[in-house]
């Protein structure tokens, strides 16, 4: 390690994370990369795994965990939210439906920004700060579709959608749902990506099923993709 903070266990843990930047490592490879003893490297990797800073791939090798992506997303939240207002307003005006921005927090997705459809008539209103399930809805599909295989598999347990459905989301770049999260509500969502390409949020429109229909993507996928692209570009400019 090039620099010491004076807190030995922290320096060693950071050394493990730094070694894993290069890609998956077996325990033997981790020992070689960090120059830690085998028991110490194993103990630290397992402790980091408990906090989701490290996970394991299908071959049992240690890899960087999803919690790091969540922390990175949280660090960029202010930049994301600073751009969200006008983008969601433009999406709402283009689709004539309520627009939302969701971020995943553990086992739920949280609405961090919204622009409601104005005026009379039916609409779907999601309050900022509302926590919704990761088991249903187009935004949940988007936030899960690009996860690592292990977390994706866990997320499918009890979900209203399937692995094949998420594969289709990845192919076309957007998701839709009809009466999946709530009876009578349809939605379309697309991923917002960090400069590194990681999905950090989902931008959505939602409204009554009777207006959006059973295939709302035919009407609104293009507008939602445009909004997602604008937010991703805003993150890239501020990086």
Structure report:
With 239 residues, the chain is α+β, with helices and mostly antiparallel strands. The protein folds into 2 domains: 8-64, Orthogonal Bundle (Arc Repressor Mutant, subunit A); 71-238, Beta-Lactamase (2-Layer Sandwich), CATH 3.30.450.40. Helices cover 48% and strands 20% of the residues. The protein has 10 helices and 8 strands. The protein has helices at residues 8-20, 27-34, 38-50, 66-75, 77-95, 138-145, 149-156, 163-172, 209-212, 217-238, and strands at 54-56, 62-64, 98-105, 108-115, 131-133, 175-178, 185-193, 199-208. The strands form 2 sheets. A 6-stranded antiparallel β-sheet has the order 5-4-3-8-7-6. The chain has a two-stranded antiparallel ribbon with strand order 1-2. Helix 1 crosses helix 3. It starts with 7 loop residues before the first helix and ends with a helix. Residues 67-237 form the IclR-ED domain. Residues 7-66 form the HTH iclR-type domain. It comes from Quadrisphaera granulorum. This is IclR family transcriptional regulator. GO terms for molecular function: DNA binding; DNA-binding transcription factor activity.
């Amino acid at each position: 390690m090039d620099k010491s903070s004076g807190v030995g266990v922290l320096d060693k843990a950071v050394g493990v994370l730094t070694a894993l930047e290069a890609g998956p490592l077996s325990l033997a490879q981790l020992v070689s990369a960090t120059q830690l003893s085998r028991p110490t490297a194993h103990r630290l990797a397992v402790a980091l795994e408990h906090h989701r800073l490290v996970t394991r791939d299908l071959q049992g090798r240690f890899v960087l965990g999803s919690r790091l992506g969540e922390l990175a997303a949280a660090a960029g939240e202010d930049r994301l939210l600073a751009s969200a207002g006008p983008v969601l307003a433009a999406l709402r005006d283009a689709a004539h439906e309520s627009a939302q921005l969701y971020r995943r927090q553990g086992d739920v997705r949280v609405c961090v920004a919204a622009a409601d459809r104005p005026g009379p008539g039916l609409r779907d209103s999601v309050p900022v700060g509302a926590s919704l399930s990761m088991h249903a809805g187009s935004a949940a599909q988007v936030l899960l579709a690009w996860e690592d295989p292990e977390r994706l598999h866990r997320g499918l347990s009890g979900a209203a959608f399937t692995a094949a459905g998420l594969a289709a989301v990845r192919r076309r770049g957007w998701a839709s749902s009809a009466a999946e999260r709530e009876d009578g509500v349809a939605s379309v969502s697309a991923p917002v990506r960090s400069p590194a390409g990681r999905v950090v949020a989902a931008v959505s429109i939602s409204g009554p099923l009777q207006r959006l229909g059973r295939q709302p993507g035919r009407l609104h996928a293009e507008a939602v993709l445009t909004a997602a692209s604008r937010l991703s570009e805003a993150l890239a400019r501020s990086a």
